[in-house]
Amino acid sequence: MNISRLINEIKDIAKRKNAVILAHNYQLPEVQEVADFVGDSLELSLKASETKAEVIIFCGVYFMAETAAIISPSKTVLIPDHDAGCPMAGMINAENVRELKKQHPQAKVVCYVNSSAAVKAESDICCTSSNALKVVNSLQGTTEVIFIPDKYLGSYTQLKAPDMKFIIWEGYCPTHVRITSDDILKMKRKYPEALVMVHPECRSEVVKLANAVISTGSMSKYATEKAAKEIIVGTEVGMLHRLKKEHPDQEFIPANPQAVCSNMKLITLEKIYWSLQDMLYPVKIEEPVRSKAKLAIDRMLSLSRQD
After folding, report:
1. What spatial distance separates the first Cα and last Cα of the chain, rounded to whole Å?
2. Is the full-model pTM beyond 0.85?
3. Structurally, how many domains does the chain consist of?
């Protein structure tokens, strides 16, 4: 079956089953094309919380589908490949968080959404790469923050909130750390007029070389605002499909073409079709983990809705 026909088949089944297809910016191009909405973690969380659909097909990694299931327990949340995990999320567990809280009893726990439901349940509030600073600044009366699990996002946020003491977990994204300062400098030599935008999960030395340090959800907006002919993009290469589609007159250059998340690429059109057809693979979060995790997510989402 060719791609366009398979996309049409998937859309037909989704319509019959009152399903919405959500896809992260790092998904394969054809997966982005079949989706009802493509976005970053925050945008997808908001869509999951607002949708009237009975079924959510989440094309991303497992923690994203978990987040949707936490927010919308009355809906059926499916992930087309149960093995699509996030290495960063696996770098911390609930026991680690409990130990940190014992060591720093006055601190609030700010949890990047790239984490398991059990870790979120031990946290005070969640954040994404697009709202981490806003979340930290919302913690009135707090002077100490435990930031988990991404050390690079934590370090970048700390620079923007110098009056706050940060205790930062040593997690990281294996895909983003593939992008080095040498990669940026090499591309800048090749494209001297290009602007550089990178994700805050990148190494600190990469962040220092960028014109903009922003979430994937903000990258398309940045391209519109700057209208630069060439932009070097420091994030997972799947983002380039959306950028090129929305800005065909601009050139987008991957900072490192090897910055590929193999877990994101596990989701395929065929797996989406099978997931919808046979209702594979449902994501369920048991109580009380779900309710506790939802408190941390809701606090984040309430800040986002104030924009």
Report:
1. 44
2. yes
3. 3
